[in-house]
Amino acid sequence: MTAYPLTWLYVPGDRPPIVAKALAAGADVVVVDLEDAVAPDRKEYARAATAELLAQPRPDVHVRVNALDTPWAADDLRALAPLPGLSGLRLPKVTSAEEVVAVAERAPGLPLYALLETGLGIERAYSVATAHPALRGITLGEADLMADLGVRDDKGLDWCRSRVVVAARAAGLAPPPQSVYPDIRDLEALAASCAHGRALGFLGRAAIHPRQLPVIERAYLPTAEEIEQAETIIKAAMREKGAQALPDGRFIDAAVVAAAQRTLTLARRT
Fold this sequence. Notes:
By secondary structure, this protein is α/β, with parallel strands linked by helices. The chain has two domains: 214 residues, TIM Barrel; 44 residues, no CATH class. Helix content is 44%, strand content 14%. It is built from twelve helices and nine strands. Helix 9 packs parallel to helix 10.
């Protein structure tokens, strides 16, 4: 996985031809979905097809398993966790640190990513984020969260979005990616939504169609002006240690330097 993945492409686990196309679509991470995208009567087939896919090493393929309180979760973990092609597990509807620990014990060594999709999950965001060293990231599942909270307008989730960004940072995790944008046709609205998410502190976004990938990447890559500012900050930091002010009066310290370094790392993707 790249240092800062920007695109996470979800694909239904019960549709192997679509999975094959997703693997060639250019996403940083492909997420094979065994949960919401798969009907109950297709769960076993999806699991078997995914196990066949992951029997050989593959770069950057995650699986979203079924929630722990469902009858399919234990079989998902048993079948998939040992496979060499699996790079990470995405855990839906997480509401407690104990759930993360339980999966970490069943899937030792695998990076875990928790999706917070309920009010209870949001309230426990920091506890979940610090549950186990195997946990590498947290993010939102916004469709279920909106339903759980009774939110009717997208802006009603902004407090929850900020909550998960703060919890991730406080736990020393990477900035969370945004949840999926459901309208695959309206790329202009997707770009605007990404700009809003970036302003809130997100980094990258999940997608449900390959056409969304370049929009997400463009939205999250630094602009020429941001790159220039980052280079100025790094040069100033190299000249002098400790907090200082730039010639234009801007104050920089270690946190500002770290942000500039991240900007330049992202810029090297282009």
